[in-house]
Design brief:
about 80 residues; alpha+beta
Amino acid sequence: MTETQVENRGVVETVVQAVAAVDGRPVTKLPPLGAAVDTDGLAAFVTSSTTDGRITFEYAGYRVCVDFDGTVTIHE
């Protein structure tokens, strides 16, 4: 399990970079994140969420969890 926090970059970029780091391949070799999750909805969830919550989805063979506070967790 790898955990990172959305800071100066957006949640979409954070998810893709975190999965690439865990997987050991460049982000350009990963499938489009939009094929796994609504990226606009994901970004809105993190930037405008006022309640606790989590979105979980499969991406590039990993289970990705994004918490309302911007915490991104990658499960192998």
